[in-house]
Specification:
Layout: H1 3-15, H2 19-32, H3 37-50, H4 53-66, H5 72-83, H6 87-100, H7 105-114, H8 122-137, E1 149-161, E2 170-181, E3 184-195, E4 197-199, E5 207-210, E6 214-215, E7 221-222, E8 225-228, E9 233-238
Antiparallel strand pairs: 1-2, 1-5, 2-3, 4-9, 5-8, 6-7, 8-9
Helix pairs in contact: 1-2, 1-3, 2-3, 3-4, 4-5, 5-6, 6-7, 6-8
Length: 243
């Protein structure tokens, strides 16, 4: 069965509340590709429907990280945060959902409600103010070294390129950050990471520290590892030798 049919069947089972079977189908799709955002999202919604808040939050966050251009996982993370009474986190998640999909009516309504009745055109501006507040606070801790690049991530995109006969190819992350220099944000700096195996994660709004940068012939910047100051984790791109 193709991946598309597998996911279609899983969603049909989810909609009819056959949650055990839906869970199995989503998991089978995920076994094919551990970065399959739709399968992770489906698993998260099954956990959400079952009332397993911890599992739902973990799986929905994995879906969000797998495809940062998709706002649906962020919306449900906002729902979970709101249920837990964390309005600041809920606002951040709803703002993420709107940034990914400006027409996400549910996220717009939720953010409007939490921010005191702001109206349609003001919602993106409110999301921008939330980002600005993060920038003003600066990195969560001091960098490990003085000769590194430290900045706030403004955008992350992910694509897959062919790599030999590997079934899932090579993952390429394109990342844009705003350099943090002398207590303020400055120029944009773009770089990419290429990997057959990527450990750790980077998302919009993270503070990261970069050490060694390889400047390629086309002028692009390649980074093999960096440190996510917000998540307190090393992000490393490994490329296995293809035979």
């Amino acid at each position: 069965m193709s991946r598309a049919l597998q996911l279609q069947e899983a969603w049909g089972l989810y909609k009819t509340r056959q949650l055990d079977e839906a869970l199995r189908r989503f998991q089978e799709a995920l076994d094919r590709d551990e970065h399959e955002a739709e399968a992770l999202y489906g698993l998260g919604l099954v956990d959400y429907a079952r009332g397993d808040v911890v599992a739902a939050e973990r799986t929905l966050d994995a879906a969000r990280r797998s495809d940062v251009t998709w706002g649906a996982p962020s919306y449900y993370l906002g729902q979970l945060a709101e249920r837990a009474g964390d309005q600041r986190e809920a606002r951040r998640r709803y703002a993420e959902a709107i940034a990914a999909d400006p027409d996400n009516a549910a996220a717009i309504d939720a953010l409007r409600r939490l921010m005191g009745g702001i109206t349609g055109a003001a919602v993106p501006a409110a999301a921008g103010r939330a980002d600005a507040a993060v920038a003003q606070q600066g990195p969560p801790r001091e960098p490990k070294r003085r000769d590194t690049i430290v900045g706030l991530v403004e955008g992350v995109s992910r694509r897959t390129e062919p790599y030999g006969n590997r079934p899932y190819g090579l993952t390429v992350l394109e990342i844009r950050l705003r350099r943090y220099v002398d207590g303020s944000l400055g120029d944009l700096f773009g770089f990419h990471m290429r990997a057959t195996r990527l450990s750790g994660a980077i998302e919009k709004g993270d503070w990261i520290e970069i050490g060694d940068v390889e400047v390629k012939r086309d002028g692009s910047n390649r980074v093999k590892e960096c440190f996510n100051l917000s998540a307190e984790q090393l992000v490393k791109a490994s490329v296995s030798v293809f035979h």
